[in-house]
Amino acid sequence: MGIPVCVALNMMDVAENRGVSINSEKLSELLGIPVIPTIARSGMGKKELMAAASWLTSQDETPAALAISYGDDVDTVLEEMTQIVQGEGLLTSLYKSRWVALKYLENDNQIISLGRQENPSVSKKLEEMVVRLADHLKKTLSSYPEAVIADHRYGYIHSLVRQGVISSEGDQDRQHLSDKIDRIVTQRFLGPIIMAAVLLGLYQFTFTYSEAPVGWLEGFFGWLGGLADAHLSDGLFKSLITAGIIDGVGGVLGFVPLIMFMFFGISILQDSGYLARVAFMLDRVFRIFGLHGSSVMAFIVSGGIAGGCAVPGVMATRTLRSPKERLATLLTVPFMNCGAKLPVFALLVGAFLTEGRAQAMFLITLISWGGALMVALFLRKTAIRGESTPFVMELPPYRFPTFRGLLIHTWERTWQYIKKAGTVILSISIVLWAMMTFPGLPESEGEKFEAARKTLTAATAPSVLAELESEAPAEGRSPEATALREQLVAIDAQEAEAGLRHSVAGRIGSALEPISRLAGFDWRTNIALVGGFAAKEVVVSTLGTAYSLGEVDPEETGSLGDVLAASPGWSPLVAWSLIIFTIFYAPCFVAVVCIAREAGSWKWGAFSMVFNTVLAFGLAIAVYQIGSALGF
Fold it and tell me: For the structural domain made of 72-166, what CATH number should be given?
């Protein structure tokens, strides 16, 4: 391509351990570019690599493009095509003319598409030349241009390494430790069992060791809310701080330890090389469902194990050459358990499925993968038909992860979660708080609740009222004072619920309730799910705000999970229904934009939102209705 390039020759420690010596200076001389030996996990060669890159960018002259001979037949046509590209200026504002001609010979769909857009007549002429060359090569060599070009490139590589670049000691055909491990870890029958055990171990580790830190954070935000409640005067500002920010964003930040432990475990699997084996084993399954082996990494990046993100997962589909497989993959990666869904699952599993939380999380993972594969199969049999393409991947050697590397990877991902909670989620929480607060309860409705309080207190003895106003501890109150307080709290709760129902968000949630009840969702849950279209973490923050606005008893404190578990409209069956809905419903807005951009049309972004939501609601209804019929 004729652009400045330097090579980071990585894993030099592995080469040395295997008795392979690489002369980087000789390789640099033959290629005409800097070649820097590196060991990424320890940082060796990092400064030299940066220095080489800096030196390259400081040069005034454009480096010469590497020119390889591809044989007389190809070279003759390549030269003619290069002159046409140069003369007509086809894509030369972006690329070297010889490289553009090569891409036409290699049948590169992206470059040919760009050429057709810029100059259809010139592009057609080049394509006709490629067809003529292909016919000639088929008759004379029983081959085609792409294969001939690849053969000559490998020949060029072979000649390089034989010029004193690589020397080896001992038997290079022997099995290395990684190969011996793979004979067991990737074995057809033992491999999946080991993979399931590893995932269960990861979830067990996460829930076991994050329980105490999560409790500390929940206690901290409870203390912070109590502090704000005690020192701020009643009004909208106090409501914003306590319900909108502390209970909303605090509910999301409370799961930071769980997210951190999950990311730490995934970093171990990734840095050790085991995730590549997961992709290798799942390739056999993916082909059954019309997907490509490379789709596996897109699924894992999106949260196939847990804690990823659909946006880089969608972008990872660029490695797929088949447009059909690529489209099927990018439409199904949002079903994975991304980091935004984890707080929702952690909240519901912790509140309703306390026994066997690791097993519940493992089951959620199986459901998300199974659902994604079934949808992919459905799409490949209907809207996105096409042949599957072969898959080849390299398995990196097993390595002990460095503690520094694990800390860096864990912190980077955790910080992204914290930053999102402090920016995007905070902004959405404030907007949703306003929607759940205004326009407020009509004055006439408020007078009815005030009249009920006056009627209740008027019929109560003065001594009981004095006892209640003295703020005596609950255990020291008389039965009459306790009963009066419970009645007043009940009136306050009714007023708070009426105010929430009269808000903009409450009206939206109530309007959806006749339909959502089929899946077990009440109007508060509907508010949270509508907010979740922006970002899935908002489901937790909105539930925290909604139940905080309805909480009127300062003596009753507890986490959001405790509040949901004690609410009459919630049960383990409703929790499972909501889990299923959260797995499958529309991707967050940023992911939808990314899908539309990568697919090249907004219709696929809209399809993802509508199809996923309809599918999710249908499955949630099935879970709730069947569970109810069976007595759950």
Answer: 1.10.287
